[in-house]
Amino acid sequence: MGKGKYRGKESNSKTLAGPVIQLRKGTSQKHG
C-alpha cells in the first residue's frame, strides 16, 4: 500500500520535474 502511494507520487513528481529539468538544462546551456 505504502509503496503504491509512493510510486504514484514519484510518477507525479517525475511528470512535473521532467519539463522543469529540461528547461533548467536549456537555460544552463544558454548561460554557458
Q: Name the helix and strand elements from N-terminus to C-terminus, one letter apiece.
A: H
Tell me, rounded to a whole number, the average pLDDT.
Answer: 63
Number of strands: 0
Note poorly predicted spans: none
- Helix share, percent: over 70%
Apparent shape: rod-shaped
Q: Describe the largest sheet.
A: none
Distance between the termini: 45 Å
Q: What radius of gyration results from the CA coordinates?
A: 14 Å
Continuous helix count? 1
Structural class: mainly alpha
- What percentage of the residues does DSSP assign to strands (E)? under 5%
Q: Could you characterize the architecture of this molecule?
A:
The chain has 32 residues and is mostly helical. It is rod-shaped. The protein has 1 helix and no strands. The N and C termini lie far apart (45 Å). It has one helix at 2-31. The longest helix is centred in the middle third of the chain and has 30 residues, at 2-31.
What's this entry about, in short?
By secondary structure, the chain is an all-alpha fold. The protein is built from one helix and no strands.
